[in-house]
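Problem: given the chain below (416 residues), write out its structure.
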Amino acid sequence: MAISKFSLFLILVAAAGPLLYNGVRHHLTVLGVYRSPIFVSSNQDIHKIPDTLQCEDIHYYAPGNLLFAACEDSVLPRFQWFPPLDHLDKPPETPGSIHIIDPQTLKSSRLTFENFPGSFVTHGIDVVQDPDRSDAVYIFAVNHLGNPEYQPDTDIHKARSQIEVFHHVLKTSTVRHVRSVRHPLVKAPNDIYATGPYSFYVTNDHYYLRGYMRLVENFVPWIKWTNVVHVQLDRLTASDETAGVNATIALPNLWAANGLGHGQSDEEILVTSVLGGTMWRTQASKDHSRTLSIRDDISVDSIIDNPSYYDDPYRTVDDDASGYVLAGLRRAIDLPKTHHDPAATEGVIVWYIRRSKDGTGWEKRVIFEDDGSSIRSASAAVLVPINPAKGATQKEAWLFVTGFVSNNVIAVKVQL
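Solution.
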């Protein structure tokens, strides 16, 4: 019996219907459509750390027991200029700053720049030990600059982002600018994973920098145009941002690639899909290509940004609290209405994920949730260990949470 083209179409739709329904429902769940906007913070004893404004990313440097963050210095410029949110009105004239937070005193100290007079619009960062001296680190930071070559009514974009490399000696108050890095493959940088002074990975969070197609890649999960790029430097001293910069695509065909993070070993590199609510656990090849391969993935029911891994220093065979920490928004569906408004709020959610006791799966738990009254937006969170009291049956840690438009980094004790 002959089957008409229309009948065949109906059969295909009926067969694919459940898959499409499940995919759409998961996407709506991640965006927070089914999550109530009315909520009170799940933690009362919240510490707001002064002088930590709009720190999009934060890293715990265990060898020095310090937190590093890249922050803004005033509220309004981020709402006028932040290319990742398509804020392109006016590049700020005031620079951002790099801060060190002491997890014991909960105080922030801003570092004084050396050899860096330029503008600094902060985003993702990473911190890696100086291989030549144990008391120093290199800091890699995304910088969203305005494009000096921009002309209206042309294809030249308003922004021209690059990566800044800094050097800091621990227990000093300064940070020295080493060089700037720019490459055509790195056109929408979001976050960084450094493997050493000369090598790092960086995510491109969009393929299109503006216009209708940028919206399309945001809302269509099947369009996988973002990627991770590996950058290799052949020199650390260069006045030209493009000098000695070699780049290759390390992981292509991702939807909404965003955060990068260090995993449970030096070989594990964490990559997130912000809109997919997915974290990929990847591994770098050992040849010169430095390509990444996806080992597996972990999904949660919210958008997620910069991932981190908590390495439990007090673990035992029977009690290991090591796990992944993922920060995001409770209702990302509201972000298009709030991201331009300095007075608005976005509720936040932080996930803690550890291996199940039988070792076959993952235990996923929300360890912090807030309606936006304690912290606005969440793009990164890290855990800092607390030495268990003798006889304690429950481990605790300090949870530090920060956001791309938050007024402060916050700290709160959580049970693991």
